[in-house]
Design brief:
Layout lengths: L7 E4 L18 H12 L8 E4 L6 H4 L5 H12 L21 H21 L5 E4 L20 H11 L5 E5 L6 H6 L6 E8 L23 E6 L5 H19 L3 E5 L17 H18 L4 E4 L10 H13 L11 H11 L18 H4 L6 H13 L8
Parallel strand pairs: 1-2, 1-3, 3-8, 4-5, 4-7, 5-6, 7-8
Protein name: Acetoin utilization protein AcuC
GO molecular function: histone deacetylase activity
Keywords: Acetoin catabolism
């Protein structure tokens, strides 16, 4: 299918905003509502080839593709009595506050991602799907973690395997390590998990070292590139292009699932990278191209972290939707006045004026320019390449 005919299912249900830990929690669902309002303001929901879909919540059998029955039961219990806590399952804790919609909202977000995976795998109508409410990559089989209750990326991948996929690539560019997805497929040679993230030495979840490369039956199928705190556009893009395309070329995925946490941004309050909206947009464009080059266009794109609720997340994920739709937005475009008014109504802040941070990111290509053994970023890139590329028959 030609790229301009790939088609997009955008998964959205207003009820995903009930994934709400409460006032004062960083995971503010306003970021989801504002993203959808911006997508609508740019006319993307009615653009040619775009269909907005609302999928049903993931059912019990689907949730158990990744999560234990005991954990699903625990989520239901805590939702019924949110004044309780269940530290053994990571519920009602300092990070993962309990709330009444905990099970229903989490299952709904998971259902959107699973439906997106089914749509792109079958490819009868579309090759692309986006669920920017998804990307909850920290949840473990029996424990909530890092604001994540059900691990929708892992559930989407598990569903792809159930449908017969033999090679699924997961690429995670959130500032935090995609630990829950890595754990779910640690010893499964059918799944390649790639994560670029801030170093575990300085950020939760303190995993994702280059030496984490997969289980005994799947060596090299976990690939991690931890980046020094303070890494900005040039280093982030250099690292991505030095690592991701070669791995995908060697693995030959049939479908790509990507996670686009916006918390790599320099304005994000919870992390220490200094990436711009413009670099985030370039990586979304690169993932689109890689999906067409290596996976016949089959691409499920998810959201993730991102806690600059007005100034970053809506623009970052609207760019993602626009790219997946085949209708990219010029970064110099002004944000619609009606959207800025809505942002101010909801948050007291009008939000940014344009879809850009006003920079044109440039980077030195690792392959063309070699590496500097005295540079901390290049040391990290080389360590990651040495750890995983030889497992795929590639030179580090």
């Amino acid at each position: 299918m030609p790229e301009n005919c790939a088609g997009l299912h955008l998964y959205w249900d207003e009820a995903v905003t009930s994934y709400d830990f409460g006032a004062g929690h960083p995971m503010d669902p306003t970021r989801l509502a504002l993203t959808m309002r911006l997508v609508e303001a740019f006319g993307l929901t009615t653009a040619p080839g775009v269909t907005v879909r609302a999928a049903p919540p993931a059912g019990e059998s689907t949730l158990r593709l990744v999560h234990t029955a005991g954990y699903v039961d625990a989520v239901r219990r805590i939702a019924a009595e949110p004044e309780r806590s269940d530290p053994a399952h990571g519920l009602g804790t300092a990070d993962n506050w309990a709330f009444k919609a905990q099970h229903t909202a989490s299952a709904l977000i998971a259902g959107q991602s699973v439906a997106g995976a089914e749509a792109v795998w079958r490819g009868e109508e579309v090759r692309h799907a986006v669920n920017f409410a998804g990307g909850l990559h920290h949840a473990m089989p029996d424990k909530a973690a890092g604001f994540c209750v059900y691990n929708d990326p892992a559930l989407a991948i598990a569903r792809l395997l159930e449908l017969g996929a033999e090679r699924v690539a997961y690429v995670d560019v959130d500032v935090h390590h995609g630990d829950g997805v890595q754990a779910a497929f640690w010893n499964d040679p059918r799944v390649l998990t790639v994560s670029l993230h801030e170093s575990p030495a300085t950020l939760f979840p303190e995993t994702g070292w280059a030496t984490e490369t997969g289980g005994p039956d799947a060596p090299g199928t976990a690939a991690n590139l931890p980046l020094p705190a303070g890494t900005g556009d040039a280093g982030w893009l250099r690292a991505f292009h030095a690592f991701v395309p070669e791995l995908l070329s060697a693995f030959r995925p049939q479908v790509i699932v990507s996670q686009h946490g916006a918390d790599t941004h320099l304005a994000d309050p919870l992390a220490h990278l200094t990436v711009s909206l413009d670099a985030q947009r370039l990586v979304a464009e690169a993932m689109h191209e890689l999906a067409h080059h290596y996976a016949d266009g089959r691409w499920l794109a998810l959201g993730g972290g991102g806690y600059a609720v007005v100034d970053v997340v809506p623009a970052a994920w609207t760019h993602l939707v626009a790219i997946a739709a085949g209708h990219p937005i010029d970064p110099a475009t002004e944000l619609p006045a009606e959207w800025r008014a809505e942002a101010e109504r909801l948050t007291g802040r009008p939000g940014p004026a344009r879809m850009t941070d006003g920079v044109e990111p440039h980077w030195r290509d690792f392959h063309d320019h070699g590496y500097d053994p005295g540079d901390r970023l290049d040391q990290a890139i080389l360590a990651a390449r040495r750890a995983v590329l030889p497992h795929h028959g590639l030179l580090p």
